């Protein structure tokens, strides 16, 4: 899918979550991912300077959507550690562009991190931002926001909106088995949902992520063959 993907910038990995306990530093994309994905459950503020340096030195921010996802993660992290932001400011200021701009935005948004999500139109990138912010904070508001995007799973006119809904569905299914709060919010939402959202929630809670992803790819293929997309 050109311009849209079902793969999160922060890939779901139970091995990466478990590996956080063994981290002594952040010097690779895998160690950064491990640090990020389990931060709300196992905060490691002593590794924040390493994370900032890696973001500045790597090509991470060249990936599509990565600046917004990175800002969403650090905004929630800085909100959680407001008293330490000044301590980390020298490390942030030492980074090259665009890392410095992204981190400055995160600092500015730390007072109201959810505003970063509210400022974005529905898209797979906004879904990734929600996951990044959730990983940093554990705030179920982001999970509930992703559940709302399931309403787009039935969209068949606008490809971007369909992929927004299908990426939300795939990522919720992927994370439900790793983060108990995600499964809890999904079950609570299903109890009161109807229509398209209820159908999507049933699938999230019963189908494998691979099945969900394969179904979405097939829908896109047929839409392109028909000339709709």
Mean pLDDT, as a whole number?
91
Q: Which structural class should the secondary elements be placed in?
A: mainly alpha
Residue windows where pLDDT falls under 50 for at least 5 positions: 1-20
Cα-atom radius of gyration: 18 Å
The profile of the biggest β sheet is: none
Coarse morphology: globular
Could you give the distance between the termini?
11 Å
Strand content: under 5%
Number of helices: 13
Helix content class: 55-70%
Report the strand count: 0
The tally of domains stands at 2
Oligomer: single chain
Order of helices and strands: HHHHHHHHHHHHH
Structure overview:
This protein is mainly alpha-helical. It has 2 domains: 138 residues, no CATH class; 91 residues, no CATH class. α4 runs parallel beside α8 and α8 packs antiparallel against α9. The longest helix has 18 residues. The chain is globular and about 50 Å long.
């Amino acid at each position: 899918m050109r311009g849209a993907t079902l793969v999160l910038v922060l890939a779901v990995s139970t091995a990466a979550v478990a590996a956080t306990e063994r981290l002594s530093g952040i010097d690779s994309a895998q160690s950064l991912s491990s640090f990020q994905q389990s931060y709300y459950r196992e905060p490691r503020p002593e590794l924040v300077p390493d994370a900032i340096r890696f973001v500045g030195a790597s090509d991470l921010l060249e990936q599509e959507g990565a600046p917004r996802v990175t800002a969403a993660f650090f905004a929630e992290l800085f909100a959680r550690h407001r008293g330490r932001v000044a301590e980390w400011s020298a490390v942030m200021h030492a980074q090259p562009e665009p890392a410095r701009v992204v981190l400055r935005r995160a600092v500015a948004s730390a007072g109201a991190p959810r505003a970063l999500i509210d400022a974005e139109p529905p898209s797979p990138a906004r879904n990734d931002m929600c996951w990044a912010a959730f990983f940093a904070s554990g705030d179920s508001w982001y999970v509930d926001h992703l559940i709302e995007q399931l309403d787009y799973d039935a969209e068949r006119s606008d490809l971007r909106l369909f992929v927004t809904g299908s990426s939300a569905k795939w990522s919720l299914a992927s994370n439900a088995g790793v983060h108990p709060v995600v499964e809890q919010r999904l079950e609570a939402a299903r109890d009161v949902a109807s229509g398209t959202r209820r159908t999507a929630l049933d699938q999230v809670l019963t189908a494998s992520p691979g099945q969900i992803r394969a179904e979405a790819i097939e829908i896109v293929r047929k839409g392109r063959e028909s000339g709709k997309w």
